[in-house]
Fold this sequence. Notes:
binds magnesium ion; 44% helix; 8 strands; binds adenosine-5'-triphosphate; disordered N terminus
Amino acid sequence: xxxxxxxxxxxxxxxxxxxxxxxxxxxxxxxxxxxxxxxxxxxxxxxxxxxxxxxxxxxxxxxxxxxxxxxxxxxxxxxxxxxxxxxxxxxxxxxxxxxxxxxxxxxxxxxxxxxxxxxxxxxxxxxxxxxxxxxxxxxxxxxxxxxxxxxxxxxxxxxxxxxxxxxxxxxxxxxxxxxxxxxxxxxxxxxxxxxxxxxxxxxxxxxxxxxxxxxxxxxxxxxx
Length: 224
Ligand SMILES: Nc1ncnc2c1ncn2[C@@H]1O[C@H](COP(=O)(O)OP(=O)(O)OP(=O)(O)O)[C@@H](O)[C@H]1O
Ligand SMILES: [Mg+2]
C-alpha cells in the first residue's frame, strides 16, 4: 500500500531531447553497474524510454539480461534495450542514438579501467556524470581524484552535471557525516544515498526495485 502510493508520487519529466547519464569512477567496485541497472529499471518502470549501455568488455549487463530472458522464456524486444559498446566508440554511438531521438535517457555503465581519453570523450558526450562512492577512506580518496580529473570537462562543457552518489551506506551512517565528508569536492552530492542492502547485490535488468525509485527520482530532478 505504502509503496504504491510512493511510486505513484514520482512523476515523469518530459525532456525535449535525449539525456545521457554516465557512471564513472577511477576505481573498480564502487557500484557503477549496480546503480546503472537499478536506475535503468526504475526509470523504465516510470515510463521513460531508456537504453542501458555498457562499455565494460566483461559484458555483465548483456549476459545478465540474456540469462533473465532465457529463464523467463521471453524475447528481448519486450523490454528496454541493453547495448554493449567499448570505450573507443561509445561517444560516437551516443551521438547516433541521440540523433535517432528514440530514447529519453541513455544510461552508460563505464568500466573501472577506462582510459583517460575514454573518460574525457564520455564526459563530453554526457549531460550528467555520476560518481558512485562508499565512505571508506580509499574510495573517498579515489572519488576526490576522479572529481579533480573530471573538472576540466566542465570548462569545455559548463552545463555538464558532475554528481556524487553515496553508495553502500550502512544504517548507522549519518547523512550529515556523509555530506561533511564530501562537501569539499567540487561536485554536487545527490540528495539521497543507496544503502548497503542484499536486494542490490543481484539486480534484475528487467524488474525495478521499488526502494530505488526515490534515488532515481533525485537523479532525474538534477537532469532537468
Ligand atoms: N548498495 C549496495 N548494496 C549491496 N551491495 C552492493 C551495493 N552496491 C554495490 N554492491 C556490490 O558491490 C560489488 C561491486 O559493485 P559493482 O559491480 O556495481 O561495482 P562497479 O563499480 O560496477 O565495479 P567495476 O568497476 O568492477 O565494474 C558487487 O558485488 C555489488 O553487488
Ligand atoms: Mg561494473
